[in-house]
């Protein structure tokens, strides 16, 4: 065997450990962890806390938790918030040995706020896949109204100081920093002083597919969680202003506020099963993305069905939407400006001016297989 082949075999049989912030519910970052674990099935997955509802079903092995999981369990899994002050210590003392007892050769950590602290628990190179630096810690406006009163607000502010210090302390020690979008890479550069490789998160392009036999219908779609930072209120106000039908598929703590401002042509479906959601994407004139996402999985799911996207031209949409080919990017501004922009775009929108096949091909570049290929290249580059 040549030395090149020997080197390749050594790289591809490395013990890769995956570390995640918490496994408390399943969303985009948990699917990242799932795909990383499937790419290195002989490794192990670690998180300070976990519950059954937050564990992706296709993990090759059960996740390993820490002493902090006892507190989370004692709280009845009702909220992970009381565990947050203890997260840095839990990561720094994390035992990263796999089921067989071997130490990792490479650690890939999935980071939201504290996970990079695992760099203090191992001598192995740590690659940080960053969904975003802790935006709530760096941007005070994102903490507004989230504390639940003066005491809670004070605790959250104090925790934000800890989170910033933790991120800054860990950043120089990381072998490689990977951002899930160009917008997140910019934050990493500004807040951490590190350059980042961009690898977009995996999208289920096999579960979201076009159907040329399905006819477009006269409605726009807003899909996903109804939570403040996603700004569903802007899309709902815009649909009422444009006097166009809007279907809202999703639920969340902003539901009642959204209902209160909705026009007569807006329909709320709540959470819907996959088959119904897929059908909605295929039939909609376009998907609306009014908020600023770190990346934004839902728009790519919609594009995977061949449906165009109307998005605010900020954040992850700048990576995922190609103006004129896969959708429209609207100018940022104040709330009233954004509402007016979306209303104007919907009022004159012609889905027939977009080619379903072109949109689908673009979305395939964000597939699970493409994510795993790119992350394999990053890990292979770790000394």
Overview of the structural elements:
By secondary structure, the chain is an alpha/beta fold. The chain folds into two domains: 3-202 and 368-380, Rossmann fold, CATH 3.40.50; 220-364, Glycogen Phosphorylase B (Rossmann fold, 3-Layer(aba) Sandwich). 38% of the residues lie in helices and 13% in strands. The protein is built from 15 helices and twelve strands. It has helices at residues 3-12, 28-39, 68-74, 87-92, 135-138, 150-170, 182-192, 232-242, 255-261, 274-283, 297-304, 317-320, 335-347, 356-364, 368-380; strands at residues 16-20, 45-46, 106-111, 126-130, 176-179, 197-198, 220-223, 246-249, 266-270, 287-289, 309-312, 327-330. The strands form three sheets. It has a six-stranded parallel sheet with strand order 2-1-3-4-5-6. A three-stranded parallel sheet has the order 7-8-9, with helices on both faces. Helix 8 packs across helix 13 (335-347) and helix 11 (297-304) crosses helix 14 (356-364). The radius of gyration is 22 Å and the shape is globular.
The strands making up the biggest β-sheet line up spatially as: 2-1-3-4-5-6
Sequence of secondary-structure elements: HEHEHHEEHHEHEEHEHEHEHEHEHHH
Indicate the low-confidence ranges by residue numbers.
1-11
Domains (count): 2
CATH architecture of the largest domain: 3-Layer(aba) Sandwich
């Amino acid at each position: 065997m040549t030395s090149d082949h020997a080197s390749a075999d050594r790289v591809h049989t490395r013990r890769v450990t995956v570390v995640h912030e918490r496994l408390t519910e399943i969303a985009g970052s948990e699917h990242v962890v799932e795909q990383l674990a499937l790419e290195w099935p002989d490794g192990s997955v670690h998180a300070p806390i976990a519950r059954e509802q937050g564990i992706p079903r296709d993990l090759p092995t059960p996740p390993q938790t820490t002493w902090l999981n006892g507190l989370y369990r004692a709280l009845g899994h009702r909220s992970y918030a009381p565990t947050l002050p203890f997260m840095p210590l839990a990561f720094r003392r994390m035992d990263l040995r796999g089921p067989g007892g071997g130490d990792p050769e490479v650690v890939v950590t999935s980071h939201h706020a504290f996970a990079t602290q695992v760099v203090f628990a191992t001598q192995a190179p740590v690659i940080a896949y960053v969904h975003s630096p802790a935006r709530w810690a760096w941007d005070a406006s994102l903490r507004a109204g989230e504390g639940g009163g003066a005491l809670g607000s004070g605790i959250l502010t104090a925790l934000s100081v800890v989170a910033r210090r933790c991120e800054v302390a860990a950043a120089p020690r990381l072998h490689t920093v990977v951002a899930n979008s160009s917008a997140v890479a910019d934050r990493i550069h500004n807040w951490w002083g590190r350059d980042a490789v961009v690898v977009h998160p995996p999208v289920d392009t096999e579960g979201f597919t076009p159907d040329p036999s399905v006819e477009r219908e006269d409605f726009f779609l807003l899909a996903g969680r109804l939570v403040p930072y996603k700004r569903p209120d802007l899309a709902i106000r815009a649909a009422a202003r444009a006097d166009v039908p809007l279907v809202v598929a999703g639920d969340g703590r902003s539901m009642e506020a959204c209902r209160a401002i909705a026009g007569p042509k807006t329909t709320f479906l709540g959470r819907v099963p996959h088959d119904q959601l897929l059908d909605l994407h295929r039939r909609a004139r376009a998907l609306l993305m009014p908020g600023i996402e770190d990346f934004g999985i839902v728009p790519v799911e919609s594009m995977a069905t061949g449906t165009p996207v109307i998005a605010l031209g900020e954040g992850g949409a700048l990576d995922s939407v190609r103006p004129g080919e896969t959708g429209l990017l609207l100018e940022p501004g104040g709330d009233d400006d954004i509402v007016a922009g979306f209303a104007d775009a919907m009022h004159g929108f012609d889905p027939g001016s977009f080619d379903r096949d072109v949109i689908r091909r673009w979305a395939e570049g964000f597939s699970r297989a493409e994510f795993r290929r790119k992350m394999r290249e990053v890990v292979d580059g770790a000394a």
